[in-house]
Amino acid sequence: MMKDIRLKGNKTCGGCGGSLAEKLIFEVTGPNVIIHGSGVCAGYSTTMLPIPKMTLHFSGGGGAGGAGIAAALKATGREDIPVLAFGGDGSVSDISFAQVSACAQRNDNMIFFCMDNEAYMNTGNQKSTLTPWGAATTTSPAGHVEWKKDLPMIMAMHRPAYVATVSPAFPQDFKAKVKKALGMKGYRYIHVLAPCPTGWGSDPAKSVGLARDAVRTGLFPLYEVENGKLKFTYEPKERIPIKEYTSLQRRFRHLDDSEIDKLQEQIEERWTSLVSKSQAKI
Asked: Of all helices (H) and strands (E), which one includes residue 84?
């Protein structure tokens, strides 16, 4: 593994899970990459990298921009340079979803990272389709009333080269998946849980703990999909109650016990569904 190639200093908030995720990514890739977009909300202008980096805003997203760079490299015979495309949850699951879907359908040659902090954090914490059910945002102050879009599985249904979920609280699993993706060709989609203390209303010192508990509750399972086959890469010996996770975040504090139970039931249903998918091709 290589050292973090980012230059010192950025304007991300204390405890930013996206910044930690970037560190893990670049420790694996090193400098021989071209980057499009940025998933950390302050990263569009403040994450300093000594490598080629281009950005279009939401509507231009990592999908179209990354695909264009990959096509240009192919045309010039430089496919030895990996293309890394980044987008936040609002950009990827909402505004530029059609582009990301098209990239997966065409199997464009790039690694796409969705940096999921579960709301439009860089514009003030508005809900996205990756905001969890019940979570309060500025546009859902009483709690988000829809279930979170299962974007990794939607990507897997396109049958791209590779799909994986990662958490910065499990760095070995995280780096192993990035390394695997780096050694492949075609469209590789990696969904990153990126805790946001500012939007989640959590203690910045507990970001890694929250990223770990999201996995241990079953809310954010760790798996990979290759050739239509889902494989869990970490299974908690005993999943912890979702209340232990939600109680540490202001965005969930308005939920009563019956609503917490509803969220717990949804987690159990989804876990059962993923287990069934792991036993047969998607």
From this structure: strand 83-88
